Amino acid sequence: MRFIETDLAGSYVVEPEPFEDDRGNFQRVWCAREFSEAGIGGRPAQANLSQNHRAGTLRGLHLQLPPAAETKLVRCTRGAVWDVIVDLRPDSPTFLRHVGVELSATNRRALWVPELFAHGYLTLADESDTLYQVGSFYAPGQEIGLRWDDPALAIAWPRKATTISQKDASWPDLDPDDLAGRVRAAVESHHD
Q1: Measured between alpha carbons, how far is residue 144 from residues 15, 147, 170 in Å?
Q2: How many C-beta atoms surround the C-beta of residue 122 within 10 A?
Q3: Strands 24-26 and 19-21, how do they pair?
Q4: Of 12, 62, 138, 191, catalytic
Q5: What does each of the 192 residues of the chain score in pLDDT, given as a tens digit?
Q6: Annotation says 12 is catalytic
Q7: What would the DSSP string read from start to end of 59-71?
Q8: Which of 18, 63, 144, 156 makes the best surface tag, with the fewest CB within 10 Å?
Q9: Is position 190 annotated as part of the catalytic site?
């Protein structure tokens, strides 16, 4: 696998290196040793499959706070998605900056999402499926979110979102100071 760091330190596009022959190809999509050698820690606690029927479906932007902070390895196994992550590490020089990456069944890329990054995606094709390997168990009480169209984030989505849950459409306007304080408090209370 190739690990290509994005503009947000600690997040990576992960490209498989397929072995091809007359039968087709074989590719490793997870290897604890290779991830560790790339400086990426953690092991999956859950694997989740999200099936999306229509192009324009938007899911996110979500994250879990400590003690249930998640890492994610996200890949699109059918169709295509525009996957976005937002750095919510309060002391990071890239706090509130985002990166978007196309993940598709064709390009076979994955995106490594570190702890304290919000994550979401927009489907680019009908019948698009994403597979997440998640480093912590789902803890609804630790989940927070950002609105996908919050002007403070200014995310340039490649197409219009046409299907979105009520929960994701109703996250409040972003208050950077309040958000940084909430994340910092969760991190500090987890380390005490």
Answers
A1: 29, 10, 12
A2: 28
A3: antiparallel
A4: 62
A5: 999 999 999 999 999 888 888 988 888 888 888 888 988 877 889 999 999 999 999 999 999 999 999 999 999 999 999 999 999 999 999 999 999 999 999 999 999 999 999 999 999 999 999 999 999 999 999 999 999 999 999 999 999 999 999 999 999 999 999 999 999 999 998 775
A6: no
A7: EEEEEE-TTS---
A8: 156
A9: no
Query: Could you tell me the strand order of the sheet in which 110-113 lies?
Result: 2-5, 12-15, 110-113, 72-78, 128-134, 46-52
Spatial separation of the C-alpha atoms in residues 66 and 70, rounded to whole Å: 8
| CB contact at 8 A, 167 and 77 | no
Eight-class DSSP state of 165: -
Q: Say which DSSP state 171 is in.
A: P
Which of the 8 DSSP states describes residue 168?
H
- Tell which residue, 54, 33, 39, has the closest CA to residue 3: 39
In this structure, are residues 8 and 99 in contact, taking their beta carbons and an 8 Å threshold? yes
Show the tokens assigned to 163: 């299907």
How many Å is the Cα radius of gyration of the chain? Answer: 16
- Residue 62 structure tokens: 């979500």
The position carrying tokens 């937002």 is: 86
Q: What share of the chain is helix, strand, coil (3-state, %, to 5)?
A: 15, 40, 45
Q: Which of 12, 98, 121, 132 is catalytic?
A: 132
- CA 121/CA 79 separation, integer angstroms: 13
